[in-house]
Amino acid sequence: MPYYESVFIARPDISAAQVEALTESMSAIVVEGGGTVAQAEYWGLKSLAYRIKKNRKGHYTMLALDAPAAAVKEFERNMRLNEDVLRLMTIRVDELDAEPSVMMRNKNSRDERSRRDDRSDNKPAPKPDAAPEAETEAAPEAKTEAAPEAKTEAASTDAATQAENKTEGEDK
Question: What is the distance between the alpha carbons of residues 3 and 91, in angstroms, rounded to a whole number?
Fold first, then answer.
């Protein structure tokens, strides 16, 4: 029998349990048609690239099917009739992978990375040396001394600008 991979997007306002029930009911249609569902993966609630039927998110699910063409056709017909399904795409593949899909592998690697980051947060931060603290204390004093000079320069330029504006106004 030929192999197929089918991905569908369900409405975001249904729960993950309802998506699982939808997946099981569609799997039953394939089994009734003489095929098998080799793998079913729930990818989760994800953002869509663009709006579909006024929705910005959707529940993604992938099914790996080993079924005759007639069973897949009936499966797709029922999916199109279901109001909870926003989009459906089924492709024929040469062979089914026994490994998890790329989406599931990426999800697992993200989980591992976050666990590693959590462990590094528990380590105490290294104590700073005494020398950098002395430099940071001296720097604010220098800034406070320079600040009054900058204010006087700004005030003198404002006064000169106002004087020029007055003379231009008198000439008109």
Answer: 9
Q: Is 70 exceeded by the pLDDT of residue 6? A: yes
pTM for the structure as a whole: 0.60
Tens-place pLDDT, residues 89-148: 999 998 887 777 777 777 766 666 666 555 555 555 555 555 555 455 545 554 445 555
Separation between Cα atoms, residue 60 and residue 44, nearest integer Å? 6
Q: Closest Cα to residue 9, out of 66, 70, 80?
A: 80
Burial of 126 (0-12, 13-18, 19+ CB in 10 A): exposed
CATH superfamily of domain region 3-104: Ribosomal protein S6/Translation elongation factor EF1B (3.30.70.60)
* Residue partners of 32: CB distance under 8 A and separation at least 6: 71
Taking alpha carbons only, the member of 23, 35, 19, 109 closest to residue 68 is 35
Which ranges of 84-171 does DSSP label H, i.e. alpha helix?
102-121, 130-171
Exposed (0-12), middle (13-18) or buried (19+): which is 10, by Cβ within 10 Å? buried
